[in-house]
Amino acid sequence: MPRYPTESAPRSLVDAAARDLVILGFSVAICVGLQQWVGTEAGLLGLSIAGIVSFLLAFAVIYLSHEWGHYIGARLGGADIPLGSSSSAFLGLFNPALYSRRQFQFMALGGEVGYMIPSILLMALFWDTSPLQGLAVAGAAFIIQSLYVDVPVLWAIHKGADIQKTLDEGTAPPVLARKTSISWVMLAVGIMTWSYLG
After folding, report:
1. What is the rounded CA–CA span in Å between residue 21 and residue 24?
2. Domain of residue 105, residue span
3. Is residue 69 part of a domain?
4. What is the DSSP letter of 85?
5. What pTM does this model have?
6. In terms of CB atoms within 10 Å, which end of the chain has fewer, N or C?
7. What's the pLDDT tens digit per position in 139-184?
8. Considering the domain boundaries, does residue 4 fall inside one?
9. Counted domains in the chain
């Protein structure tokens, strides 16, 4: 979930988009290189490294897409939010005290759409594609984590709960760490069960 800005020197739209396109291009290049490397190595170590690295790269790219979704959703809702500073990971920094509940809901829905589209694409394209199955697993991990972490918070706000208080309670670092761990364990159990039954 986005936090409101605490830093100055916001980025321009061009700077933010350029940075994230470079990250995307870098991630694609690494995945292509991993696929070629594993094709020559073909060992368990190579497959494991490719899986872990591709998972981390895909998760980072999906996260950026999620943040762009927040930003675009907020702008569609009429909120003129900043893009954050050059050192910030967050794109759409939304201060609930400055905007309406409707604008918050647009921002929140944009973030959900922002991660869902790339996650589903990665799952559809790479679920059975060794050695880059980590891309698909990252998509599934992001979906499960977001459904478990974000949706209860967003639903409570939709039903009328105070926005800032609900965000502070539902997205506090210990809560995020616990819920992320639980969601990833659920995903691992699901994948192992699917593999065993398949």
Report:
1. 5
2. 13-197
3. yes
4. B
5. 0.85
6. C
7. 999 999 999 989 999 999 989 999 989 988 888 889 889 988 998 8
8. no
9. 1
